[in-house]
Amino acid sequence: MLAPLPGALPAALPTSARAFAVSQLLLLSDLLGTFVFALSGATLAVRYRLDVFGVLVLSCAAAVSGGLARDVLIGAQPPAALADWRYLATAMLAGVLTFYRHQAIERMRNPVQVFDAFGLALFAVLGTSKALDHGVSPFAATLLGMLSGIGGGVARDVLVARIPVVLKAELYAVAALVGGGVVAVAEVFALPRGAAMLAGAVACFGLRYMAIRHGWHLPAAHLPEDRA
């Protein structure tokens, strides 16, 4: 057998190194999703003319509420958003940037929506996977994955006393359900978790992106006087 050339990279990283690389990539993606969700909360706070403390509260609520609720329900203690300071720090950074650079953030409305769809997809599949790891049934795990994605938006809207956007916007919660559902179905049929998470994230992002572009939405309730 020929000896490897000096300085040549190994054909494959050790398993521990690959696992570390994947975990760091997921953490980076998670923090990016946290940042984008925090931007949405801070932007709404500025529109309601809240002070800097209110902006930070809404940015943190939008960024971490879904994950906190999920972790409490599955018994993951302490919740990840409280155990790792980087989550709240990232959310507060987004809040400060929005408070002082609100006009610039508003001009990035379309890019932020795209990143929001990315964050939704990521949180939905990661939330479902974490729930499955804690022994939750696939059906319940799908619901918890959806909660991970939409919980922050619900908390944000409740804090400013408006109907949560996820209950009336274009296929937001439904997209999260689809993404989490792919992971849950793969678990039922003992399919590889990693591939299922990738497929679920793509499905969730694709559905949400198409809803943004084409205005797809579910039928809304109407009262008789609405047709008058």
Please give a structural write-up.
With 228 residues, this protein is mainly α. Helices cover 73% and strands 0% of the residues. The chain has nine helices and no strands. α1 runs parallel beside α7, α6 runs parallel beside α8 and α6 packs antiparallel against α9.
In total, how many domains does the architecture comprise?
1
- Following the backbone from N to C, one meets helices and strands in this order, namely HHHHHHHHH
This entry's quaternary arrangement is single chain
Poorly predicted ranges: 1-11
Radius of gyration, in Å, reads 20 Å
User: Strand fraction band?
Assistant: under 5%
As a percent range, the share of helical residues equals over 70%
Average pLDDT metric:
86
Q: Report the biggest beta sheet as strand number plus sense, adding barrel if it closes.
A: none
User: What is the helix tally?
Assistant: 9
Q: Rough shape?
A: globular
Q: What class do helices, strands and sheet pairing give? A: mainly alpha
What's the total count of β strands? 0
Summary tags:
about 230 residues; mainly alpha; about 75% helix; globular; disordered N terminus
Could you outline the blueprint of secondary structure elements for this entry?
Layout lengths: L14 H33 L4 H23 L5 H4 L1 H16 L1 H6 L1 H25 L4 H22 L13 H16 L4 H22 L14
Helix pairs in contact: 1-2, 1-4, 1-6, 1-7, 2-4, 2-7, 6-7, 6-8, 6-9, 7-8, 8-9
